[in-house]
Write a structure and sequence with these properties.
eight-stranded mixed beta sheet; two-stranded parallel ribbon; alpha/beta
Length: 146
């Protein structure tokens, strides 16, 4: 087990299976199928991200460096929360961008969904965590990976 400490963006705690993207996460491309076409498993639709393409994101600990792509990213995250199609948590190795942060924060404030978000976990976190590992996060930004 390894422990990492990051900055809390959206507080909360959870335990979930890791889904790891080593590339930037294109929020719109990843959620398009789930939000527009009713994919109930919320499989990643971003064909440019081979790490997670066609893998279910619902209820996973989404581990990524950063988000990339469209300026709609914040609204996409908020909509995922509103439709209960969000990951269990989002864990960023780098600082979160303002668009993703706004969507995640609004999802936590304006919906009844829970999606804790922690950033600044560092490259060591993203190098260590593997898809399928168990991730536990605490309200203070502590992340345990086993």
């Amino acid at each position: 087990m390894r422990q990492f400490k990051g900055r809390v963006i959206v507080p909360g705690e959870c335990e979930a299976e890791a889904l790891v993207s080593r590339k930037g996460f294109n929020t719109l491309a990843s959620y398009q199928m789930a939000l527009q076409f009713g994919d109930k498993e919320v499989k990643c639709g971003d064909q440019n991200n081979p790490d997670i393409y066609k893998k279910p994101m619902l209820g996973k600990a989404l581990c990524l460096p950063q988000t990339i792509g469209s300026t709609t990213g914040g609204m996409v995250l908020f909509t995922a929360c509103a439709q209960h199609k969000q990951p269990a948590c989002m864990l960023f190795s780098m600082p979160i961008d303002s668009l993703a942060a706004s969507g995640a924060i609004l999802g936590g404030v304006w919906t009844d969904s829970s999606m804790p978000v922690i950033d600044n976990l560092g490259d060591e976190f993203l190098n260590y965590v593997q898809t399928g590992m168990t991730v536990k996060i605490a309200p203070d930004g502590t992340v345990n990976v086993e």
